[in-house]
Design goal:
The complex is a heterodimer of chains A (about 110) and B (about 120). With about 110 residues, chain A is mainly β. In chain A, about 0% of the residues lie in helices and about 60% in strands. Chain A has strands spanning about 5, 10-15, 20-25, 30-40, 45-50, 55-60, 60-65, 70-75, 85-95, 100-105, 110-114. Chain B is globular, with a radius of gyration of 13 Å. Chain B is mostly beta strands. The chains are: A mainly beta (about 110), B mainly beta (about 120).
Chain lengths: ~110, ~120
Amino acid sequence: DQQVKQNSPSLSVQEGRISILNCDYTNSMFDYFLWYKKYPAEGPTFLISISSIKDKNEDGRFTVFLNKSAKHLSLHIVPSQPGDSAVYFCAAPETTSGTYKYIFGTGTRLKVLA
Amino acid sequence: KAGVTQTPRYLIKTRGQQVTLSCSPISGHRSVSWYQQTPGQGLQFLFEYFSETQRNKGNFPGRFSGRQFSNSRSEMNVSTLELGDSALYLCASSLTLSGTGTYGYTFGSGTRLTVV
């Protein structure tokens, strides 16, 4: 079974600095890995994805890196802004007996200090 | 276009009761997945419906069930509620089965269920 771990439950960063959020998974898959952001009282919103055939995807201030040999993802936010304060979830695909779903990590709560 | 709509937003039930949660996906999305979020547990997959058929199921007891209608709207039912069922229940819709592809799922705001 796919396991997704976000080992840092929380992270505090000064405004303007880089935020790095990490995610480890156990099973390699040929598909997209996803990052979501969640504010209190709202559902998660899609942030950025990366195809398993790439090692980097950039979208504005957000860059996701994929290290396939280490089975590791990281999300970089540069520069960090107070509005980025939220819980971030990574998700990795899993196939079991021909069915497919995304497995989410437990999330990292990012706090950007003004 | 309208997003994923979940009703109700908040619900308080007592142990032993049953509850039904509703989800209306984005127009044109045929896949609806349900997740449970509890503190420290992340998002736990419950099940997915696509074209009115359950396509996938997570590791939850049979008290958790769902269905999907011909207009892709979905309902989730929990019977014989337990205190541990208190959680945020999120519905997610996607154009493709299981959210495959670049953009994955679009989530609703969730239903906060409290069991007392």
